[in-house]
Amino acid sequence: MDILIIIGLIIAGIILFLIEIFVIPGISFAGIGAFFCLIYANYFAFSNLGNTAGFITLAASAIACVASLIIFMKSKTLDKMALKKNITSTVDNKAEQSVKVGDEGIAFTRLALIGMADINGHHVEVRSIDGYIEEKTPIVVSRIDNGTILVERIKQETTN
C-alpha cells in the first residue's frame, strides 16, 4: 500500500509539473502542487520504507520528471497546441508614403517626442528630433527612417 501511495504521488507530481511548464506558465497552483507531491512522496518513502527505498524513490522521481519532460517535448502534442497562423497584415501607411524630406506641416498634437502632425493634408504620426514641440507649431520633415517620420521645428529667421 505504501508503494502505491508513493507511485500515485509521483504520477500526480509529474502531471502537475507538465501542466505548470506547458499550460500554466509561472508559479501557480500546479507548480506548487507538483513540488509538494514530489517532496512528500520522497519524504514518505524515507520515513516509512527506509533509506534504501527513499533513495530509490528520489532517483525514480528525478528520472521520471526529466523523462516525462523529454517525452512530452518530442511528442506531437506541442505541435497540436502551437499557433500556426502567420500574420500577413500590414499597417496602412499611405499617408507616410506621400511625405518627403523637406515637407512642411503643423504639429497637430504636442510632440513629446511622438505625436501627430498635419503634413500635406495628411494626419501622420511623427517623432520630434528637437524634443518637446507644442501643438500648432510649424515643423519640417528632416528625415524618414524605417517608416518613422522625424521632424523638427522650422527655424524662425530673425532680421535685425
From TrEMBL:
Keywords: Membrane, Transmembrane, Transmembrane helix. The chain crosses the membrane at residues 6-24, 52-72. InterPro entries: Membrane_assoc_protease, NA-bd_OB-fold. The keyword Transmembrane helix applies. GO terms for cellular component: plasma membrane. It comes from the Bacteria. PANTHER family: INNER MEMBRANE PROTEIN YBBJ. This is NfeD-like C-terminal, partner-binding. The lineage of its organism: Bacteria, Pseudomonadati, Bacteroidota, Bacteroidia, Bacteroidales.
